[in-house]
Amino acid sequence: MKRPAMHRPQSLRGVAAVELALTMIPLLVLTFGVAEYGRAIYTYNAIDKAARDAVRYLTAPPPGSLDPNADASNLVVYGNVQGTGAPLAPGLTTGMVNICNATACPSTHAAVPTGSGAVNLVTVSIVGYTYTSIVTYVAPATLNFNAISVTMGAKL
Asked: CA gyration radius for the chain?
């Protein structure tokens, strides 16, 4: 005696494709969101590191430097003192770099005498940088970074 073949009901065809589509949407949004916020954090860290490099440069500029503040601004934006190449972060300009030292901000950065000389504070700040998102449907179109400031003491 022959058994009849078992057939799937016609109503279940394509269910797996629909389930895949329904689960792929949140997974893709989550993946793009994590990637976009990762890019934002990477950009913030790149700008922060550039500010640290600039303040370190200003604590002991090389003897041949004609304008150490302009060199430090170029170092923040372009990664070199010549000011050549593409900016380290899209939209970053030298106008966003503020430098405070004993000459620019004498009330807050005056030389402080110590037992072995004097220490001059130098601060490099990046103010007004706006991060622009690529994937605007997942993350906000723009993120305004707060001021990124680094202060270091330079021995006089």
From this structure: 27
The SS3 call for residue 86 is: coil
Would 3 be classed as within a structural domain? Answer: no
**Could you tell me the residue range of the domain that residue 38 belongs to?**
11-155
- How many structural domains compose the chain? 1
Query: Taking Cα atoms as reference points, which of 144, 145, 147, 151 lies closest to residue 127?
Result: 147
Judge whether 4 lies within some domain.
no
User: Is the residue at 1 inside a domain?
Assistant: no
Q: Which residue has the tokens 């500010």?
A: 51
Q: How far is CA 111 from CA 4, 65, 104, 123, in A?
A: 97, 21, 12, 13
Sign of CA dihedral 104, 109, 113, 116: negative
Tell me how far apart the alpha carbons of residues 130 and 36 are, in angstroms, rounded to a whole number.
Answer: 14
Taking the complete model, does pTM exceed 0.85, yes or no? no
- For residue 144, the number of C-alpha atoms closer than 13 Å in the C-beta half-sphere is 4
Q: What digits encode the pLDDT tens for the residues 89-102?
A: 999 999 999 998 87
